Amino acid sequence: MPVGIFRVSLLVLTAIVNHPLLFPKENGTVPEDPQDIIQKMKEREETLRLEQLRLEREIAEQEATQKALEKAAKVVEESEKEKVRWDMWTALSMVIFLLIELWRQDFQEGIWQDTGGEEDDMAVLGKAFKGVSFPDKAVLASFYEKRILGTTGDMARMREMVEGFADDLLEALRSVCNRDADMEVEDCMGVGSMYENWRVRKPFVCDLIVPFAPPEPYCFRSQTWCSGDSFPPDEQGYGTIKVCRADEAVTGCICDKTKLGEDMLCLLHSQANATRPSREMEDLLCFKNTQYLDADQVMKWFQIAVTKAWNRISHKYEFDLSFSLLDSPGALKIKFRSGKSIAFNLTPVVQYENSDVYFISHFPRSSLAGDLPSSTHWFLTFAVYERRFIQLVSKTLPANACHVSCLQILSFVHGKQCSLTGPSGLTNYHLKTVMLHLLQARPSQDWATEKLEARLQDMLKFLEKCLHEKKLYHFFIGNGKVPAELGFPIIFQRAEPLNLFRPFVLQRDVYRKTVDTFHEMLRNMTTLINEYTVHIPLVQTNGIHKESF
């Protein structure tokens, strides 16, 4: 009985505990509404979608970052390769440039090496040369002794007389000039054939150059065609001279080189000192409204100054002094009461920096020389270095060397031929340039006295070769073999060679006339030398023979 009651009680208790209405939340799950379930599913789906989008964005950003890094690495790698490639091209370009520069220098040096007198190099002769018979050694020696050697003493006496008078004239010129406003004149120097002892034709003319400088506080600053700026071909060999104050910067300001607009002002220079009064620059012999020295103004100033100087000292001398040529600044002529006369050139020049190269105001002109590009362009003369080179080389040659004799004979014959057929494009300066080239190219022993005939033929052959090629290079410009003892400016040694026969390319009529005259001279050489070997007085021509120097 008790056991049955206990079982019934346990059953009832179990039923009560497990009834869903007694513990609806803790012990059981009440069925939810289907709409709530659907809503929760949608919310869950939206949450998952947003999470997916976020993950996709992160993945996309990571991929973009990875691509950017890969691209940057690729760019760096390509730049490294390009840099290596560029360095290779740069090195290759430098090597090519150096090879070209070495070839150019060797070619320029070869210009002087090719004048060594080899038969293959010299045998570029015209048909007129092949049938020419040259005077033998005995005839040349007799001609030189009778017609040329006797003029040496006359030249020495004339040089002494002209130099003494020129020094006195320049001293008087300094006394009549205003030391505070006029140009300062230095001592004169003798150049050209009279001072190199190879002048043979009368009338003898001494060439003297007179350096001058501006008054303080001004100075000259020169610029040549080989100083870096581009010059047209017809201006090679020329330069310009600028008159500046000594305290001005060497490089200058761009306002001095460029025309500024009316609304522009240089911040470095005030309007007061940016330009100078035109009258002041004209007093300094500059071209109108410029700072460049005017050769025509210099000529007028020098002629007036020489006239004043002569008026001051004329009472001391028993002769008259006059200008023989009005288009040359100092072509002077001394006329004695006996009727005899002496001519000499006193030419103002400007020194190039600290060298013995000079800007010359009026260079003696020949048929080849055209008009100057303008009156502000000055020709450069190397006459002082040419004289020094001849003196330097003469010390290494055998006694009584024949180099000067060759030049004298050739100059004499050429002058006589021109008096018969008219002037040609060849000048004595061209003949001297030929001698300078051969002096440098040939060994010293080749200039012995007994080799006069051979060296004269070499000069004629070399001249024929140059005429054939229309190329005769200036001896100093572009010549890297100039002896260091001369102290020649390196800027001209490194310049491109200057062709003295360049006008022949443009003036065909002059070239043809020159070649014809040269060939005619070759055919007449023996006749001319034989004719003037006997004692026949030289006929003095009227006027002044202008010698290029």
TrEMBL record:
Q: List, alphabetically, the PANTHER family matched.
A: CELL FATE DETERMINING PROTEIN MAB21-RELATED, INOSITOL 1,4,5-TRISPHOSPHATE RECEPTOR-INTERACTING PROTEIN
Q: Respond yes or no to whether keyword Glycoprotein is given for this record.
A: yes
- Residues spanning the signal sequence: 1-20
Identify its membrane topology class. Single-pass type I membrane protein
MF terms in GO: protein kinase inhibitor activity
Superkingdom is Eukaryota
**Cell compartments where the protein resides:** Cell membrane; Nucleus outer membrane
The UniProt keyword set, sorted, is: Cell membrane, Coiled coil, Glycoprotein, Membrane, Nucleus, Signal, Transmembrane, Transmembrane helix
The cellular component terms of Gene Ontology attached to this UniProt record, alphabetical and capped at eight, are: nuclear outer membrane; plasma membrane
Family note: Belongs to the ITPRIP family.
Give the matching SMART domains: Mab-21 (SM01265)
Lineage of this protein's species?
A: Eukaryota, Metazoa, Chordata, Craniata, Vertebrata
- Classification via InterPro entries: ITPRIP-like, Mab-21_HhH/H2TH-like, MAB21L/cGLR
What does this protein do, in the record's words?
A: Enhances Ca(2+)-mediated inhibition of inositol 1,4,5-triphosphate receptor (ITPR) Ca(2+) release.
Major location category of this protein = membrane
Which parts form a coiled-coil structure per UniProt?
38-82
Q: What name has this protein been given in UniProt?
A: Inositol 1,4,5-trisphosphate receptor-interacting protein
Q: Where is the Mab-21-like HhH/H2TH-like domain?
A: 405-477
